[in-house]
Amino acid sequence: MNKALVLRMGQMHAQRYIPMLLDRLAAGEIDPGYLATHPLSLEQGAQGYELFEKKEDGCLRSVLHP
């Protein structure tokens, strides 16, 4: 059966949007802070990767600080 199905894919135009996003970040219009849900020390790196991989404790991103 020929259903004339067409799939078109591509990548996001990051080069187009990055400058605008950086300007909005600098102006305080966008707050990405909510993404860093688990700030951890470098010594806790393995724990941070495990939290992120298993999505435990509501982990969106674990951020490692030196």
Keywords:
single chain; 66 residues; alpha+beta; 2 strands; 12% strand
Helix percent band: 25-40%
Count up the helices.
2
Helix-and-strand structural type: alpha+beta
Uncertain segments are: none
Largest sheet: 2 strands, parallel
Give the mean pLDDT.
Answer: 88
Strand composition percent: 5-15%
Question: Could you characterize what this model shows?
Answer:
This protein is α+β, with helices and mostly antiparallel strands and 66 residues long. It is 35% helix and 12% strand. The chain has helices at 14-26, 45-54; strands spanning 38-41, 62-65. The chain has a two-stranded parallel sheet. The chain is flat. The mean pLDDT is 88.
Summarize the structure.
The protein has 66 residues and is α+β, with helices and mostly antiparallel strands. It contains 2 helices and 2 strands, in the order H-E-H-E.
List the helices and strands and how they pair.
Blueprint: H1 14-26, E1 38-41, H2 45-54, E2 62-65
Parallel strand pairs: 1-2
